[in-house]
Design brief:
This protein is α+β, with helices and mostly antiparallel strands. The protein has 4 domains: 226 residues, no CATH class; 91 residues, Distorted Sandwich (Calcium-transporting ATPase, cytoplasmic transduction domain A); 142 residues, Rossmann fold, CATH 3.40.50.1000; 122 residues, Calcium-transporting ATPase, cytoplasmic domain N, CATH 3.40.1110. It is built from 23 helices and 22 strands. It has a 7-stranded mixed sheet, sandwiched between helices. Strands 12-17-16-15-14-13 form a 6-stranded antiparallel sheet, with helices on both faces. Strands 3-9-4-7 form a 4-stranded antiparallel sheet, with no helix packed on it. Helix 10 packs antiparallel against helix 22. 49% of the residues are buried.
Length: 628
């Protein structure tokens, strides 16, 4: 009974369950009638016939639809077995067989509906209405389909976000688990992104809509789930390819058994046991469970083959900025001259840079806040882009910037040149002077993600042969980051095309390569690897479209988990195929020898299917330790 190739002909599971309940009640009643009306077997036969007819109708209908469309699958074997039992006059056996086969069909249908259930859950996360803000400031409740880009909506505590957008006013806490897979709520302030389907927990906010409908991040997630659930592994295609040959072969074997034994029960048992439900369920149930576990942690897989491919990855190539690092500058060193201490150096530089939007200035202000240091308001602020700042702080002229900027403004000190040559390797440096006197320097660095070193260590424990970092940044900076995370291979000062060349070279050397990047400037390299993994893809069109796998958050620990999940899924598939093959071969042998009655054959058939389903279900719980 196949679930992939003719999924459109499989009745809805609710109808199947209703047929099971009514039909099984009539068949059960026939057994009671045999005992109560022993002198009149016609009563029991009528009840058994009616029950068998109701139970077998969905199976017979599915088989006829297949034949009408010129396709031969496994359903026809079951239909023949039921018809044979009814023709033989054994309506009770036909009813029991149909019941167990219908039970298998319900199991398969519910497995096949996994994608649609996920989609329905996603749709329910998006509210049907939104509160659009009118020009006079009042709210107008409209259907979410009426929203347009540029509209402003008001979202109250407890509401779900109706569309992607940017917070204009208000602060709140959002539950973004549906998008990022992170179980902890995120604090949000004006200027930050919000995503459709996430839940507003605390404050009221006003949001300017940037994406609506299918263009939202949630819409893209929905499309990815559908595409992944409907895609097939090579093993599934093999089953479809040989299904048309399998049924005729089984019928030929059945004919031989009947010819040599003249035992109709053996033929019926053989037809039942030959239906390879367990074998067919082996791959899709495992992949649906694995995709569910991945999606729960914010790992979206475009194609089920990409998840299977991840099990063979033996080299990771990772971008630096935004992947191994946060992409934000942070102060890593304060190096004052002897005259003043670190706090004075930070006070002068932070105050002078207070009105700058440069990332270095933001890093200084953040450190001052963390150190509980109150900065002064600068006067006569002047910024030369790419060079430095001149400002007056508490009556003193402060210079901050490159060493050449200080030199151009008359600062001459041997220590300045020495520090520039020797002390700032691997760091971005701000040199500081006060009233023409060199005060020292401040080293800044892109902050390494705290889990980066742990992730690379975990990869090595999973027998990933090589890990490499590629970046367009300076070699000194790249080597310092690599040293901190223990990454042996470093390629620095790379243009996008050079990253692609590095990936292609690794593949030609025999490696199965996964490239990990931020999905924006790394799009060519993401497409060049065996799989491309985009970090922090929530809200990023480029990331979702350029990568084969998208991580909706920036937790690097998802990478080794993806490898573990893929390998576990592959192992479970092999186990399931072994279980299915064992039940079919053993069942065919026992049926041919007359050791299985039709009813026992039906029970054995369903036992194999249930074992496969429960074995696959173990994958759903994978990764629970990463949810906190």
């Amino acid at each position: 009974m196949q679930i992939q190739s003719n999924a459109e002909s499989v009745p809805r599971s609710a109808t199947l369950v209703a047929s099971m309940l009514i039909g099984s009640a009539l068949v059960l009643n026939s057994f009671l009638a045999t005992w109560i009306y022993a002198a009149n077997p016609l009563v029991a036969d009528i009840s058994a016939f009616a029950g068998a007819l109701i139970l077998s109708f969905p199976i017979l209908k599915t088989a006829l639809v297949d034949l009408w469309r010129g396709r031969v699958f496994m359903n026809e074997l079951v239909a023949l077995a039921v018809l044979a039992a009814m023709a033989y006059g054994d309506y009770k056996t036909a009813g029991v067989i149909a019941f167990f086969m219908l039970l298998a069909l319900v199991i398969e249908t519910r497995s096949a509906q996994g994608a649609h259930t996920a989609i329905e859950n996603l749709i329910r996360m998006t509210p049907s209405t939104a509160r659009r803000i009118q020009p006079d400031g009042s709210d107008q409740e409209i259907h979410v389909r009426e929203l347009s880009v540029g509209d402003r909506v008001r979202i109250r505590p407890g509401d779900n976000v109706p569309a992607d957008g940017i917070i204009q006013t208000g602060r709140t806490t959002l539950n973004e688990a549906t998008i990022t897979g992170e179980s902890l709520p995120r604090d949000k302030a004006p200027g930050e992104d919000v995503f459709a389907g996430t839940q507003n927990l605390t404050g009221a906010i006003e949001v300017e809509v940037t994406r609506v409908g299918e263009d939202t991040t949630l819409g893209k997630v929905r499309d990815l789930i559908l595409a992944a659930e409907q895609s097939k592994l090579p093993i599934m295609r093999i089953i479809d390819r040989y299904a048309r040959f399998y049924t005729p072969v089984v019928l030929m074997i059945s004919a031989l058994v009947w010819f040599f034994t003249d035992d109709w029960n053996r033929v019926i048992s053989l037809l039942i046991i030959a239906c390879p439900c367990a074998f067919i369920l082996a791959t899709p149930t495992a992949m649906v469970a694995a995709l569910s576990a991945a999606a729960r942690l914010g790992i979206l897989v475009k194609n089920v083959q990409d998840l299977e491919e991840a099990s063979r990855i033996d080299m990771f190539i990772l971008d630096k900025t935004g992947t191994l690092t946060t992409g934000e500058l942070g102060v890593s060193r304060l190096a004052p001259c002897d005259r003043e201490g670190s706090s004075a150096l930070l006070f002068d530089a932070g105050s002078a840079e207070r009105h700058s939007n440069h990332p270095a200035a933001i890093a200084l202000q953040r450190l001052a806040t963390e150190a509980d240091l109150t900065l002064a308001e600068p006067d006569e602020f002047h910024e030369e882009p790419g060079r430095g700042i001149r400002a007056t702080v508490a009556g003193h002229v402060i210079l901050c910037g490159r060493n050449t900027w200080l030199a151009e403004n008359g600062v001459s000190d041997e220590r300045l040149e020495k520090d520039h040559r020797e002390q700032v390797k691997g760091l971005s440096a701000i040199f500081v002077a006060k009233d023409g006197v060199y005060q020292g320097w401040i080293g800044l660095q892109d902050q390494v993600r705290p889990e980066a070193a742990e992730t690379l260590t975990k990869m090595r424990s999973l027998q990933v042969k090589r890990t490499a970092m590629v970046t367009g940044d300076r070699r000194g900076v790249a080597e310092e980051i690599a040293r901190q995370i223990d990454c042996p291979d470093v390629e620095a000062e790379c243009l996008p095309q050079e990253k692609v060349a590095y990936v292609e070279s690794a593949r030609k050397s025999g490696y199965h390569v996964a490239f990990v990047g931020d999905g924006v400037n790394d799009a060519p390299a993401l497409a060049a690897g065996d799989i491309g993994i985009a970090m922090g893809a929530a809200g990023s069109d480029v990331a979702i479209h350029s990568a084969t796998i998208a991580l909706m958050n920036n937790d690097l620990r998802r990478l080794p988990f993806l490898i573990e999940l893929s390998r576990s899924a592959r192992s479970v598939i092999h186990q399931n195929i072994g279980i299915g093959g064992l039940f079919i071969l053993g069942g065919l042998t026992l049926s041919g020898l007359g050791m299985l009655t039709p009813i026992v054959a039906a029970i054995v058939h369903n036992t194999g299917s249930l074992i496969v389903v429960f074995n696959s279900a173990r994958l759903i719980r994978k990764g629970e330790e990463l949810e906190g």
